[in-house]
Design goal:
Elements (H helix, E strand, L loop, with lengths): L1 H17 L6 H9 L4 H10 L8 H9 L4 H14 L16 H10 L12 E4 L9 E2 L2 E3 L1 E6 L1 H6 L6 E8 L6 E2 L5 E5 L23 E8 L2 E10 L2 E4 L6 E2 L1 E7 L2 E6 L6 E6 L5 E7 L1
Parallel strand pairs: 6-15
Antiparallel strand pairs: 1-2, 1-7, 3-15, 4-5, 5-9, 7-13, 8-9, 8-11, 8-14, 9-10, 12-13, 14-15
Amino acid sequence: MRISILVVVSLIFCPLLIAQQSMSNDSVIKLVKAGLSDDLIISTINSQAGKYNTSTDGLIALKTAGVSDRVVTVIVAKAATDAQPVAPTVPPLPPMPGAASATADQASGNPDDPAAPHEAGIYNDSAPAGSKMTILEPSIYTQGKTGGVFASAMSYGIAKIKVKAVIRGAHSNERINSENPIFYFYFEKQSAGLSYGSIFGGTSSPNEYTLLKFDVKGNTRETQTASANAFGATSGTDDKVTTGFTFTKLRSGVYKVILSAPLQPGEYGFVVSAYSKVFDFGKD
């Protein structure tokens, strides 16, 4: 009975005492001489930090002291593991100037950065520095208003009848103050051909658009889209109200558009003839 109690006390207190100091060959020998089982000694070796002598003389000393081959094997393995060098932590290379902010902008879809991902649409980037890019909301125009019918009848068809596209409202909600605005086109379809077109309705390049100036007539804006007389008919916009522009492809599906001449005050819109949709804005 007394032996059992001593064994239990040893099992409880010996690991606590050993935990206060680093394990070594001498510590293991002490545990063996105290009568602890191999399982308990191995558990202690694996759970405690230690510094062991695994040289030939050290191993012979362990064996001479009565340490079993099983425990000696664990000591050798533990010493080899503890001796493994810790790989140094290599700090990451510093980002290139401006790269960190650009990466963050792209990841977050920063609306202020033209290089960041944007939803499909036409954006104006002509606001003062620090302001956000603004999207041109599309409007629908009707093609049904005609002019010059009476004059054509009186001239026996010589005078032209004009067909006009009409937008409701005298002024666009999007206002631009710059004479040299910059626009960015973001297409959901990134190659030539017919797009899926939720925003652009099947376009994939600014080359498919015409920038027109609208005439304000009361509470509407209108522009000519076709004309006809007794000698024939023509379709398309009037060159007199067309504003030229150039564009640069920044990456697949993204274009930067710059006007060819300073923008004069008035009401404007990017129009595709195949669709009754205009991306309108006004210059104050």
